[in-house]
Amino acid sequence: MRAFQINSADTVATMLTDVAAGEVQIFGACLVMQAAEAIALGHKIAITSMQVGDPVIKYGVAIGIATQRIEAGCWVHLHNCRSQLDERSNTFDLHTGQSNDIVYE
């Protein structure tokens, strides 16, 4: 399975294929690592461990903040990081991205 690190400062890489837990080759970083869980095409895999409050870096810039400890090899998404720009980002549904904090009647 393959992923791509865009910038050498990135703490995540983007999956180029779906992966079950197992070996992932990270292009751009010349790294082979183990995915700790299934990660879908286009989603992020942590290539370094991050603590609560650490920036999640992609494109060489912070795209979010870790809301819990994230181990290298784990899926990085709405369940473990939030946007610095939108306080509601970690309330979105994990798979659809829909808001869970607004009730439409």
Q: What can you tell me about this protein's structure?
A:
The protein has 105 residues and is an all-beta fold. The chain has one domain: Archaeosine Trna-guanine Transglycosylase, Chain: A, domain 4. 0% of the residues lie in helices and 33% in strands. The strands form 2 sheets. It has a 6-stranded mixed β-sheet, with no helix packed on it. Strands 6-7-9 form a 3-stranded antiparallel β-sheet, with no helix packed on it. Strand 1 and strand 2 (12-15) form a beta hairpin. The mean pLDDT is 86.
Strand content: 25-35%
| CATH class term | Mainly Beta
Q: Helical residue percent?
A: under 10%
- What is the N-to-C succession of helices and strands? EEEEEEEEE
Kindly report the spatial arrangement of strands forming the biggest sheet: 4-3-1-2-5-8
Q: Count of helical segments?
A: 0
Structural class: mainly beta
Anisotropy-based shape: globular
Ends: how far apart? 43 Å
Number of E-state strands = 9
User: Which spans have pLDDT < 50 for at least 5 consecutive residues?
Assistant: none
Average of per-residue pLDDT values: 86
Radius of gyration: 14 Å
Main beta sheet: strand number and arrangement?
Answer: 6 strands, mixed
What would the CATH topology be? Answer: Archaeosine Trna-guanine Transglycosylase, Chain: A, domain 4
Specify the CATH architecture.
Roll
Number of domains: 1
